[in-house]
Amino acid sequence: MTRPLLEVNDLKKHYRIAGGLFGGKPSYVYAVDGVSFEVARGETLSLVGESGCGKSTVGRAVLRLFDITSGQVVLDGQRMDDASKDTLQTFRRRVQVVFQDPFSSLNPRMKVRDILAEPIRNFGLARSSAEVDERVNKLMDLVGLPREAVKRLPHQFSGGQRQRICIARALAAEPELIVCDEAVSALDVSVKAQIVNLLQDLQRELGLALLFISHDLAIVEHMTHRVAVMYLGKLVEVAPKRELFAAPRHPYTRALLSAVPLPEPGAQRERIILKGDVPSPVNPPKGCRFHTRCPHAFERCRVEEPELKIAPGDHWSACHLNDLPLAENPMVTPLAS
Amino acid sequence: MTLASDHRTPPPGLAIATPLPDILKKVKPRTGFVGFLRRYPTIAIGGFLLLVLIFVAVFAGYLGTVDPTAISPSRRNRVPSELYWFGTDMLGRDLYSRVLYGTRVSLTVGFCVAIFASIGGLAIGLIAGYVRWLDGLVMRAMDSLMSIPPILLAVALMAITRGSVGNVILAITVAEIPRVARLVRGVVLSLREQPYVDGAIAAGTRTPMIILRHILPNTLAPMTVQATYICGSAMIVEAILSFIGAGTPPNIPSWGNIMAEGRALWQVKPFIVFFPAAFLSVTVLAVNLLGDGLRDMLDPRASKGH
Amino acid sequence: MALLEVENLQVHFRTPVGVNRAVDGVSFHVEEGETLAIVGESGCGKSVTSMSMLRLIPEPPGKIAGQVRFAGRDLLKLSDKEMRAIRGNDISMIFQEPMTSLNPVLTVGRQIGETLRLHQGLDAAAAEAKAVEMLTLVGIPAPERRVKEYPHQLSGGMRQRVMIAIALACNPKLLIADEPTTALDVTIQAQILDLMRDLKHRVGAAIVLITHDLGVVAEVAERVMVMYAGRKVEEAPVRELFSNPRHPYTQGLLGAVPKLGSSLSGESTRLAEIPGQVPSLTKPIQGCVFAGRCAIATDVCRTWAPALEMKAPRHVAACHYALKEAVAA
Known about the structure:
Strand order of the largest sheet of chain C: 6-7-8-3-9-10-12-11
CATH topology of chain B: MetI-like fold
Helix content of chain B: 55-70%
Oligomer: heterotrimer
CATH architecture of chain B: Orthogonal Bundle
CATH class of chain B: Mainly Alpha
């Protein structure tokens, strides 16, 4: 078996929100609480979940934008969570990012050329200023923007064009992995399709791996190879796309899928409406974190936290129902769509 | 119905939309200098007044003035006349000349304090905002400085130094720095959360360059606005310090000095206080108008064309 | 007579770069008890249309022209006082952001009660009783306790329920919902859509739903109006629109949305993209507004703006080349 490009092992990130210097009992937000996954070269792994589930925190931890509480982030066999400054710099070149909001992702006072030249210079990818220009021009071609536009400032572009600039900046470093943190969520429908197609084309041409963080399940299904579903700081299900969308094995995934409104008037399907809201990550429920909203919860769910267990088809899920005999498990029936 | 702008006839059978009327009168968007003045009238008024005052300060010696310190006991307390436009004071000095020369002190103090306090506050604010472990320490020090009223602080500093314009500037600058530092720190804290800063970190940019290239330029707009307000308040503090005799030494004419000297005669010769006070008000008003205008111009929310 | 008839609505704004024709000649109607969805991308004028119906557009820099007839009265001709009597009473509105639309320093009960006291002259006790009743209606558990709470004590979904309760408190005939579920998570969105469908049957108010989400449209609307660059480009009953879109823009929008379950049928198709950008509304547009991005546009489209035409029963579209069925007059 070949080594995965990115391995994340038991990643935890807890933020202190109260207490500390002047006393008071410290309390923590358990934003990410033990998450493990792998991303292979050229693969798209999507991280889905609702707001506050910790998916963006995972993305930022992979980017090393902050120090993690515990766990490991391993790139190509090398641990990055405790790397020295120099290793970190090579790591940063290989892992790039595209954020959600194309309006705040670009420094409003820098011209496009300088924005794209920054990573090229930082990582020493060009020897002369002429070579920088050549690379910048190639990047503009790659993301489908006119070369003349390098002289302009970000506010002179539309949202979709800015997102293209953000993608070009990520590509400038010649990365192997791009973290797309809700990269298409803020865009209008027609522009979203343009950017999704661009990302897919680039992935094919350049052999990029994508960590695609999104709450939009339809886009995820269209883009991804594998899906990881998060709920309250933990993974509840990880599976190849077809496995997950055809036969989700976790009640949360099922509810999530059934809640997506379909653009087909009169479509008849099973609708699971979850009761209540996501509990606070400051004080997550004991046992299975989903048991407060789960329509199938039983006694064991309230006391024992389920672990991710594998099922045929590389299908991992963390649900006690999957320990039940097949006949009693409501999770084995395929999803009627 | 045909479009007015087109001479050809439409192909037969097409449903053509009726052109709609303009419900807002078309106003030619004014561009260039005139458009700028129309959009930001406060900048125009404030800027114009300030330019006039700067002109007065620079060319005070050529505007029909005499030596502002020349004493003439025989011509004391004259009311304004053709010869003495603003009258004379209790020592017979020409008030017009004194007030005009006083412009120099006020503008010098205002501009210098604005510049020095901005630079000092910017440095402290950047450090506090970006180096998290220093933040608590630095900002508590700033808080304790701010807990002393600025005038009191300046009086105390003046008490331990010799009275000179330079010391006045130093005293007011020290009192103003915490305000700037606090503003800059707030801006830095919000800027460092911006995705483009994270993007730059991911793009391998090292911390000093992050601060120089991505943080600093974006603090300049709010800083410029704050600097104008500091300039205005520094002029007032200078006048107060001079008025209570803890500021500009009496041999240099400053508006505060002139008012202090005219205080005793306020009820009989109110013009001695009136002219420097009016100049001070107009100057501070000009600076504040300019600041308000700059704030509107530099605020991205206000300048959006929607 | 329809409940709401909008005719030739124009909303223009004066901006530093010229006059922005945000809405330019939009006509539609809403029957009693009907749900009409207005769909379009950002900047198409859908929100401006809804705001201008209640005259919530600041004038200047804006200017509204045309007719908005509600139960026979032209709202654009009413005095401010008459208009205030209609807002929140006969017509009410739900906004996208439930946090900023609620006053943080008033209890939920006060905010629901306020409209009731204002429009229906209830006293404090009766208003509170009615507030509890409204919270029960929108499915908030323990309503007697919740009326005394402040907005920050509620979750996003709860706040949107409170917004709906406020909007429905006076039994409006028309409810304008501007992206009511856009800020919510998908499981919460499902709850709110469910609630809206349920309430529609029980309360019987007509709904104008403003949204960019075609999935939401398909789930709740009966009729759909598609807007682009400040114009209405197509309108049809919901099933007809999704199965038989006539305008190239509508076709493009439907093709640009991936469908859940697409991977199961084994097809991995490329999303249809609409090339280019929305045109600037501050410059005059010659011909069809969509011509610049349309795959089938010709010189005719670039010269002559198409009028809305009946293309099939109850189905209008503004396109010279859209397929037209024989329509019996």
